[in-house]
Each structure stands twice: as C-alpha cells, then as structure tokens.
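Handout, page 2. Input:
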Amino acid sequence: MDALTDVAGIRVGHASLAGRGALSGTTVVLAPEGGAVAAVDVRGGGPGTRETDALDPRNLVQRIDAVVLTGGSAFGLDAASGVMAWLEEQGRGVRVGADPAQVVPVVPAACLFDLGRGGDWRARPDASTGRAAVEDAARTEPGAAVAEGCVGAGTGAVAGQLKGGVGTASVLLPSGITVGALVVVNAAGSVLDPRTGVLYGEYGAAEPAVAPAPEVHRTARQRLAQAHDGNARPLLNTTLAVVATDADLGRAQAQKLAGTAHDGLARAIRPVHLLTDGDTVFALATGERTLDPANPIALNDLLAAGAEAVARAIVKAARAATGVNGREGGGTYPSYGELYGMHPRPGRPTDDEGPMADSPSA
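Output:
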C-alpha cells in the first residue's frame, strides 16, 4: 500500500471535527496486541506533547499501544484521554495490579497548531475525537490503505502558503524488513520550491523531479500571492510523524530511528525545526524481524529508509490535500493539486535501488 500499515500489525484511524467553523481532527496509530517498543525525538522549538518522557530509554515503560497525533494545539491533547479510556476497556496497558483489568495505558501524543483555521477558535479535538479515531483504527483490516490529505490531524493543516495534510509511505528493504512513515504536514516552512514549482521532497526521488510548465508555475505563484495577502494569521505550526518498522529494535535503537527520520523533514520542508514549529517524530518497532547479528551496522539501512519514507510521505500529503477558500474567516490555503494539477511525479524507489539511492540531504 506504500503506507505505514505495510508494517504488519500497525493500524491507523482518523477522526475530523464536524460542524460549522470546524477544521481540525485527530489521527491515531494503533500498535498490535502486546504493544510496540517506542521512542520520540523532538526538534521543533514550540512542541506540545504528552507522555513523551515515558519513552526515554532510561525509564520504566517498555512498550506502548498507541500514539496520538492531533490538531487543536495544547487543547487537542485531550484527545489522548479518549484513546486511553478505550485501551483500558480492551485491557491494554501497563499492568499495575493482580487483576488483568488493572492497567494504565501509556499514550504518547503530540499536537499541531490549527486553531481557528475553520473560523471557530474553539473547534478543537477532545476525548471523544480521540476515541472516534482509535475506534476507526481498530475497525480496519490488517494492511489496510490509509486515508491521506485533509483527514484526521491533517484536516486543518497548512504547509507554508499551501494546504497541508496527512501523507504516508513505506520502504521494503532487501532484508525483508519494512519501514513505514505517516506524516501530518503543518509546517511554517514551505514544501514547494518557489523557483520551479517542484515539491522539495521530489528532488531526492529515484527519478528526476518533473517541473510544471513555466506558465503554470507563474499562474500558481500569482494565486499564492493573492491568497497570502488575505491571511493575517501567525505562522504557528508543527509537523508530526510516526515511523514504524517490523524490526526487533531496542529502545535506544528506536530513538536513533526517530532522530534520523527528521532528515526526511529537512529534505522536504524548508526551513524546518523553527521556534514556531513543534516538529516531533515518534518511532515504533513491532519486533517481528531480527537485524542481521553478523552486521554491526545493520541499523543503518533502517535509518536511511526512515528518512526516505518521511520525505515521500510529505510529498504525498501535499499532493493529496484539498484547498480551503476563506472558510468562515479561517484563511485561504490553495492546494498543490489546485495550483499545478496532476503533472507527472517521480517514481517510487525499487527494492534494488534501496532507500539511499539518489537521496541527497537538504
């Protein structure tokens, strides 16, 4: 599926707010039964997070059952409460008593800024939104396709002057290990090269990036300038990602995977990791496949694949998004597709090329 769900056992669910003036939502990544080894790496200057300290390799919790990505800024972190309640009902979490029902689910979460994007400042995810998203994930079949674009936490996302959203991608390594990524693109920086109209993340693809026709690019820049003039909104953003693998990783290795996955953000968003961003990457490892014990640097392939998957997921998010035109005073954000149409895009790397082929860093 070229999605995070290509990692066996990983499921994804979305819930978007309904009603006039609402443009926000929540996305939940649900781990398989028994949980997954998890880590996090925060690089943005304005993060909003919950339970991330529990993922420090020095601390007690070994495995977690879900990660929450949500809109609504810090208010939206309440969505994790709904996911926590659902997990408790399933008996999933850290055992704290003799009774199997006595569990405390650890639910790491991170939020992005989309307040007022639909016009209503108070339209933000809460516990019911989180429950709806995790229930949506639980209903999916293994390996199901993942909805992309303006769904879940990407409902109100923007990327510079463009509409942002959710994107996902995966890499199958020659070893048989899968690395997948899901990204919610809500960046203060741009995903678009203003000189050419090419998405930055396409420059590192297996095939050369295809630039839109010059006349199409000129028209697009004019439309972007007009839209920007009408947006008097602060550039308070945050790009969120989950990178998952079926490899058997320790917690320190998972943290390294989360850290190098930020390289994918740097390839596809410029600038990135600003004070007004809260850029956060979570890593999950389900432990189904072992790394080659005879190769002390076998983890390198996974690290490169994580960055590759993140960069392509950002491209897919930009291409899947649909624009917002002055919705209830919430600003005008055209989509990449509306500006440039469906011009050709570079192809997906093959297994033989590997994740590092033709993938220069930003």
